[in-house]
Design goal:
This protein is mainly alpha-helical. It has a domain of 53 residues: Irregular (30s Ribosomal Protein S18), CATH 4.10.640. It is 37% helix and 0% strand.
Length: 78
């Protein structure tokens, strides 16, 4: 049994978005998908917030940084 949260409900482990949808690579040009892994302030969210596995989290981080460099995504939100 997993530890419970404040509402006394068992925690549910999030599944990796890329593993569950059988996506092998993360494309930096797919900005809509990459925005799922950013906070409203354009910060990269941690894997425990998004549920991505370590392999895909590294790919997401690399793709986000590449998209920022290519000016497809902002570095900071105003």
């Amino acid at each position: 049994m997993r530890p419970s949260n404040k509402d006394n409900q068992p925690q549910i482990k999030k599944q990796c978005y890329f593993c569950s949808n059988k996506i092998s690579t993360v494309d930096y040009k797919d900005t809509q998908t990459l925005r799922r892994f950013m906070s409203p302030h354009s910060k990269i969210l941690a894997h425990n917030r998004t549920g991505t596995c370590p392999k895909h989290q590294r790919m997401v981080t690399k793709a986000l940084k590449q998209a920022r460099h290519m000016a497809l995504l902002p570095f900071v939100a105003a």
